[in-house]
Amino acid sequence: MIWDFLNSIVRAAADTLHAIYSSLPASPIYIPASIQSELTPIFGKLAWFFPIAGMATFLALYLVAVFVLAGVLLIKQLIEAALP
Amino acid sequence: MPVALALVIAVSAALLLPVNVFAYAYSSSVLALSPSLYWPIDESGGSSIAAAAGPSLSCYSGMLGAKSFVSGDTGGIAGGYSPDYAQCASSTASVSGMVNGRTSYSTAFWGTFDSSLTVGHYFEFAWSDRVYKAFQTSSHTFAWAYPGNNVDCGPLSGDHMVVLTVSGAAGKCYVDNVLVATGGGGTSLGATLCDWGLGGKAEFNCGGGDNEALRSTQALGQFAFFPSVLSTSDINSMWAARGGSLPGAQFLCSPGNKLLAEQASYTLTCTTTDPLGDDVTSTDTYVIKAVPFPHIQCDLSTSYPVNMTGHTTSCKGLIDGTWVIIIHSNLLNRDWIGVVTVVGTTNRLSVNASPSAVVVGQQTTVSIFAFDATPTDITAQDSWSIQNADSTRTCVAGDAGTRGLTQVCSWNAAGTKTITIKDQYGFSATTTVGVTAAPVASVACGSTDLGCYLTQLWNSISALPFHIIQGVYELFFVSSSGINYLDLSPLVSNVWPNVACRSGQTPTAPDGIHCFAFPFSIPTDIGGVFSLLAVSPSAPTISFGWDFPLWTGVTLHESGTVDPTVLLTTATMTYVRDAELLLFIIGTAMGTWRILQLVGVG
User: Fold this and answer.
1) Pairing of strands B296-298, B334-343
2) C-alpha distances in angstroms, B342 versus B123, B215, B266, B313, B319?
3) CA distance to partner chain B, nearest, from residue A82 (Å)
4) Which of B274, B344, B352, B408 is the most buried (most CB within 10 A)?
């Protein structure tokens, strides 16, 4: 009985989430499949000359690191400002 | 198709006819056959008859009354009207479809007949030199007549549906859907219809004369004239509709159940009838939808579905067993299912115990199912006996009913018991019976055994707390839905919301169909960009073509392909890209350092 009750809460929460999310739109910033199929061979040839994949990977990691670092610094400054 | 056909009939009739005419099934079935004249005679009073086809009629006053021949019919020429020459007629001289030398025609009507009458009259159509009519003769028979050519429908009594058809010189009489007589028919209705009448003698404007007259017991209704020879299925459709409902479309193949010897063949014949009962087999095509090949083979095909050739097919039994054949009617979009039992030497004899699970001491009836090679069911004639020894088994002869000889057996010990039998032809069969221990009856206390009662009372009281705890535990912790844990799966499936993808968008959700909703989609959107950039390198091979016109008027053509991998191999370019990547990383790091210096972060 207790499990029925708890599971009913879970289902109610899931239904609420679903009701909220169902009003959300699909992503407006996607790359259409048709464009992707045209760009793929071009990027393939460019990648023969330039390290596009490596640069993209590095750039992604770099951006993540920068944002994390910025966040840490921001928190640190907030804490220091709050201390007497 | 049945729905469409019924709809067409309904719409056509509804557009053409008054509501009361279309109100019942029989009139629908008549109108579906396109009569030139149709008087349902639903009037139960007055002196006029409305027509569902052709002109209306005026009757002698008092001829109409409450008389129902078919379901929904409310009136008719009631009979019991005494004056001779009483009739219903129209002044209209000709009706489309009834004139101009027609040699094929039919009438259908319902009447109340009395074989004891010597004179009677139902309808009459007159032309200058001939007459088409239905009447009662002095010989107590009912006949259709063109001068000199009669069809004797025989002596009739009571209410009947009579259909008279004429094709050239051949006439037929159907009574209640059954062909009862054939005879000579007229050669032509003639060029001009002069007069007609229902119920009594027609007033011949063409100069003819007749002596028949309406007699008291003859009631009449549902009269129709058709400018064609009605087929058996046409008459079937009217007869089937008399009860108020149309017979409905049917798709059947025969035989539905077939007992077949191994390697023997039989023919399946399929027929289709439309909602009015007409045989439309010739317009239907069939598909042998499912046949369990290689156990059964139909139409010599080894794979199914396959289109049936014509409306019959030959099926052959290849492997013993009971199998199902499914045939599809394309016209009705309906399936038919047939059962074929193939009997070979491996299942010529089978044995069955009912019930197959018993307790020690309980009886079970052992019976057989036997076929000969034809195969014909010889169960009732076959004799058999149990072959295997079992010291725990006791069997006696059972009743010899339709299942032939039986044995009633019981066992005095539990276990899985095997029964092996052999019949008089030497075939063997085996079955098993599950025998379990008989339930032990609880021991009741003796009437004076106080100690026994007290012991049982104490046991009940001492067990009470445990039972209460167990009940409370089950109340709270045993789920009625059977899930005794926290099921987070509904939540998990909704934590990362997904919606229908946009046009042209590649699905991003794990189901491969939906896309993550915005803004939850941003990580996958960025991932899409990176996956585009992280493409495998491919060498940019270049093809060229060159045309050089010479002063001689000849054009030189040169073409070729430049493949950079000849010099810059994949290994070489890997080193180049690694170096470029290193420079990019160093450049990014230096740039970051400069930015940090500018913003003052140490």
Assistant:
1) unpaired
2) 59, 64, 11, 17, 7
3) 20
4) B274
Beta bridge partners of B261: B343
Tokens encoding A74 = 């921001």
Q: pLDDT tier at B93 (50, 70, 90 boundaries)?
A: low
Judge: B486–A29 Cβ closer than 8 Å, yes or no: no
**Are B211 and B87 spatial neighbours (Cβ–Cβ below 8 Å)?**
no
Q: Which residue, B524, B575, B480, B283, is CA-closest to A30?
A: B524
What are A1-25's pLDDT values in tens digits? 677 888 888 888 888 887 777 788 8
- B516 contact residues in A (CB cutoff 8 A): 27
Can you tell me the ipTM of this complex?
0.71
B211 token code pair? 């002596």
Amino acid at B337: I
**Structure token digits, residue B86:** 């009483």
Closest residue of B to A74, CA-based?
A: B601
Neighbours of B356 (CB within 10 A): 11
The Cα of A71 is separated from the nearest Cα of chain B by a number of Å equal to 14
Q: How far is CA B563 from CA A9, A51, B537, in A?
A: 65, 20, 14
Please say whether the beta carbons of B9 and B32 come within 8 A.
yes
User: What is the DSSP secondary structure assignment for residue A30, as one 8-state letter?
Assistant: P
User: How far apart are the C-alpha atoms of B442 and B460, rounded to whole Å?
Assistant: 15
- Strand pairing category for B88-89 and B57-59: antiparallel
Q: In the structure encoding, which two tokens stand for residue B567, read together?
A: 């010099």
Pick from A1, A10, A24: which is nearest to B499 by CB?
A: A24
Taking the alpha carbons at both ends of chain B, their separation in whole angstroms is 86
- Mutating which of B532, B563, B595, B596 best tests the A interface, going by the most A Cβ atoms within 10 A? B532
- Say if CB B406 and CB B366 are below 8 A apart: yes
Q: Please check whether residue B250 is in contact with residue B272, taking contact to mean a CB–CB distance below 8 angstroms.
A: yes
